[in-house]
Write a structure and sequence with these properties.
single chain; 149 residues; mainly alpha; 5 helices; 0% strand; flat
Amino acid sequence: MKKLILILTLLLSVYGFAQRDGQMKERIKAQKIAFLTDQLDLSSEEAQKFWPIYNAFEAKAENVRDKDLREIKMKMRQGNLSDAEANLLLDKLTKAENDMHAAKTTLVNDLKKVISAEKIIRLKAAEDAFNKKLLERLREFREKRGKRN
């Protein structure tokens, strides 16, 4: 049953890419939850403790990406920075990366209290696999869209 849900969710992802940004984020989030649930095979007790911890991490990581890293990347693309501007940008980048690292460290330490170390490793592998599939689907969607024009 879990595999059927996963397949249906992934098939909907192709349709989801055509939707607006907010809707797309929600669909991707739902697909990620289904994928991680399937890959980790959490018991109901583990799931009750796992998801609040993982969701808190995701919120922190999204905040760092949206608030800090987006601004930094935009300024990096502009080029022609003075040394002072570049140093300030490097400081902001370092802080954002440290914040992300701290969030990941907190995630692992908190998860060690509720699931096994082996499942935490499986979580990292599952996140990587999900991101790879997501990028492949995005690439396929863009190729199909490019062929239509």
